[in-house]
Amino acid sequence: MDPDVASIDGIVRALYEVISGPAGAPRDWDRDRKLFYPGAKLAPTRQKPGGGGIVDFFDLEGYIASRTPMFEKDSFFEKEVARQEFVFGNIAHVLSSYELSRAPGEKPFLRGVNSIQLFHDGERWWILAMAWDNERPGNPFPDLNK
Q1: CA 51 → CA 11, 32, 133, distances in Å?
Q2: Using one digit for the tens of pLDDT, what is the confidence trace for 32-42?
Q3: Which of 30, 28, 54 is nearest to 43 (CA)?
Q4: Can you say how many angstroms the Cα of residue 58 is from the centroid of all Cα atoms in its chain?
Q5: What is the pTM of this model?
Q6: Four-way CATH pick for 8-134: 3.40.630.30, 3.10.450.50, 3.30.1540.10, 3.40.50.2000
Q7: Spans of all domains in the chain
Q8: Quick check: 10 and 92 in contact, CB under 8 A?
Q9: What are phi and psi of 59, to 5 degrees?
Q10: Do 15 and 28 form a contact (C-beta atoms < 8 A)?
């Protein structure tokens, strides 16, 4: 069994490993594609100027197209720092807090939380959907270790 999809730990680890790397380093998008169920959605959120929020919806190919220019220009290392899981039957919800840095071991420049919805088809785990938001004033970083 492929360790990337055999467990929740494996799929979350692979998710972070795929997008992390130095500027200009190609990401392993084929590895990323095997993590996501066909039709899965990715929903980055951000603060709207003047308050409130904005969400973008991407399928995986749209996400890859939207982020590739950023990864070409900037080093980007995302690591999980805490997690809460809820598993029921064939579904799981993972809240995964993360830190972003420009190099492994460097001080993070941003933190946030990924909300990851997973499905187990009897053989492996799939990511069905992801939404995430970053820390900012008025939106403090949660302690998911509680």
Answers
A1: 34, 33, 14
A2: 999 999 999 99
A3: 54
A4: 13
A5: 0.93
A6: 3.10.450.50
A7: 8-134
A8: no
A9: -85, 175
A10: no
